[in-house]
Amino acid sequence: MTNTVSRPHPSELEVSLFGGDFGESVVMHLGADCWVVVDSCAESGSDESTPLKYLDSLGINIKRQVKLVVITHWHDDHIRGISTVVRECHSATIAMSSAFRMKDFLEMVDSGSEAAMVTRSGVDEFAAILGILEQRKGKRRRYNPPKMALRDRLLYRQQIALQSGVADAAVWSLSPSDSATILAQREFAEKSPKKGHRPGWIPSGESNHSSVVLWVTIGDNKILLGADMERTGDESTGWSAILGGSGVVDGKADIFKVPHHGAESGDHPKVWSELLHRDPFAILTAFRNGKVLLPTQDDVRRINSRTCNAYITATPAPTGIKGPRQRVVREALKRTTRTLTRAQLPSGHIRLRRHIDGPTGPWRRELFGNANPLAHV
Amino acid sequence: MSVQLNTARQSPAPGTIEPRPTALESESEEMHLDICARPGLKSKNDGYGSTRISNRNGTSNTPFVKEQLLLPDPPYPPESREFFRAIQKWEGHVTEVGEECFRAVIIPILGEGPALEAEIFKEEIPPDDYELIELGAVFYWSIGYLDRPSGRLNASTIRFRRLPAWTERKIERASAEAERLQALFEND
């Protein structure tokens, strides 16, 4: 365990993954105080965005130095606190799936927010983001609309000044494909309001194939962030669409954010053979929702067989709770429920850093909180 | 109004000394619930059966709340001298519906503890609310004491939020709003 609040050197790359067993966010330092935030999560019972809290603890000027915010998809476990990220990162380009500008999605957001009073869902976060964008559009002379992520689209590019020269940093979206966007639109149409239905919390759907996979390059360093992308069995969607001839992927990545919490449905063997170096750093978050626990033991074995450098932010396991102190509450809980567990584990943090000025050194790996090597799970 | 009541009476037996409040009870007394059921008292949100929760220094105990709290009706008729004192309240949403139970995530809005995931027996739900148990439905769960002239009872009540169903007009309005919002994704 080392100091989580040590700021990276301007010539040091950083990839940080945060998450418990519900929630995920990536923070990247591309060099020269140029930061990227991908998705957001929060600790249980808190609305405070974990990535913002981390950047703040490092003393980063969030308003100026966060250059890009990417929202990979709208599911609750990727989006908690993202409206605060958008609001605070004034100078950042906001990038999101092209599916989000569709009328059906906006109708779902407009009708689905405020269904609950305390619980914040993905649609609540989006409703808040739209409110922030409206304010900005009204105030600013030059309004920059969100960048729509598509297959092979450049979201951000910056020349990073180093002592030894300049490194080109670029963030590309590799998805969603056109077909995936159409499928997502169908799903949003199903969730948009229907006559006679009651408003309620809108459950996340199956639209992982429309999530935004990122290809990040900084000089010779390459990073693949898999979002929740899945293998669909259709050449025009999912990993097959990305593997089927991306025009921007050149070379192989050292770091892989494993998609969809290590689930088998997110695994495509060719991703490992074609897009990644041997034994890459494979980093992932866990997921627990009802009976679903990811990664499963099979998933853990599979990922560990593909790399000896796999790490997870928290161990996925149902956790009992310490009984409430009040007898009346304890008794009512016992009588009313069959099972009772903590909804969310405290999160962990995986941090990878590497100097890029001069001869390239090894990646330095640090684990904080509940993070562990996947081999220990 | 349906309240799940514990059969154990809390009032002291005749001839015994009333016990001192426990630490928990003392703690709970720091919460003053202004409920419209008390004669002469108006709730902050009159007409909605709302509950205002404040502590002794007047600051709110509620976490971030997206709108005025609309909590379930208090578990007693407004004219009675019964008084429900909540110890713990959660807002929940249904994530899965089974035969005997439904699964839900519950987030505390009064009282201690983290968000929990619970499998709740359907039989604990008032018959009026039974049809509302569906994926995504939002409910409020209060646990506390029901103080009556005859003694104190433990009480637990789960009520589902009844938002008006979508109408043609509302859908048209949402559709028009969505069209307007699409402009946010375009340059001027």
Structural notes for this entry:
- The complex is a heterodimer of chains A (377) and B (188).
- Chain A has 11 helices and 19 strands.
- With 377 residues, chain A is of the alpha/beta class.
- Chain B is mainly beta and 188 residues long.
- Chain B is built from 2 helices and 8 strands.
- The interface between A and B is large, with 62 and 75 residues.
Layout of secondary structure:
The complex is a heterodimer of chains A (377) and B (188).
Chain A: E1 12-19, E2 25-31, E3 34-38, H1 50-57, H2 62-65, E4 66-71, H3 76-79, H4 82-88, E5 93-97, H5 103-112, H6 122-139, E6 147-149, E7 153-162, E8 165-173, H7 178-191, E9 214-218, E10 221-225, H8 238-243, E11 253-257, H9 269-275, E12 276-284, E13 287-289, E14 292-294, H10 297-306, E15 310-312, H11 327-336, E16 337-342, E17 348-355, E18 364-369, E19 372-373
Parallel strand pairs in A: 3-4, 4-5, 5-6, 10-11, 11-12, 12-15
Antiparallel strand pairs in A: 1-2, 1-17, 2-3, 7-8, 8-9, 9-10, 13-14, 15-19, 17-18
Helix pairs in contact in A: 4-6, 5-6
Chain B: E1 4-5, H1 23-28, E2 32-35, E3 51-54, E4 83-97, E5 101-110, E6 116-121, E7 138-148, E8 151-160, H2 168-181
Antiparallel strand pairs in B: 1-8, 2-3, 4-5, 4-7, 5-6, 7-8
